[in-house]
Amino acid sequence: MSDKVIICEALTKQFGDFVAVNHISFDVGKGEIFGFLGANGAGKTTAMRILCGLSYPSSGKATVAGFDVYKQQESIKKNIGYMSQKFSLYENLTVLENIEFFGGVYGLSSAEIRRRSDRLVNKLGLTQEAKKLVGALPLGWKQKLAFSVAIFHDPQIVFLDEPTGGVDPITRRQFWDMIYEAAAAGITVFVTTHYMDEAEYCNRITVMVDGKVEALDTPGHLKAKFGVGSMDEVFYQLARGAKRSAD
């Protein structure tokens, strides 16, 4: 199991009588692009918050980068990166100020931050915009910068929560090229999305429906299993089957 950087066993999160995450089990390998798919309200973000060390589960077991989600949340935070669609950068700071701030949060030295900042700005083609406020950048550039900042400290795992919401198809494809590059460098990518076409870009996917894992496999195997040509159709069948079971 040494190559498994995330292990979940019957992980559950309950709020009063409402079960947001219902006994989910899966594991994720080093360098894998693991898609965590489902409609809004399916339990994706709640599960991710537990795995990021931001919330305690109600029951079950889980380790992230070898650390226990109950007892070692701070160690988890030091070994992961995180990017959210809702908040990832400070828009009233410049590009460089954002990079420097998050580099400091991740514990990098001033010299290392300067070295990595120069390399990152050049790589993203933001040399001319380095001293501009992030709020003035187009959304696509903000998303690319946010992802780059999330892996600035070379974490074992990066968690991406709906990272491509609101961006155009070309920028989404470019963003996924960055994800491939990170995975090739050995960073595990755990990504939540409700865009079913993005499942095609993942090595394996979990499909969440009403807090439960309804499917877990490669996109190709799932499409073959259900005899369909797209992940949209897979998800439709899973959601319809879960509704019939509930009825």
From TrEMBL:
Record domain ABC transporter: where: 6-235
SMART domains recorded: AAA
Top-rank taxon, per record: Bacteria
Keyword terms of this UniProt record: ATP-binding, Nucleotide-binding
Gene Ontology molecular function, alphabetical: ATP binding; ATP hydrolysis activity
PROSITE patterns per record: ABC_TRANSPORTER_2
A Pfam family: ABC_tran
InterPro entries named in the record: AAA+_ATPase (IPR003593), ABC_transporter-like_ATP-bd (IPR003439), P-loop_NTPase (IPR027417)
Keyword check for Signal: no
Protein name: ABC-2 type transport system ATP-binding protein
Species this chain originates from: Chitinophaga eiseniae
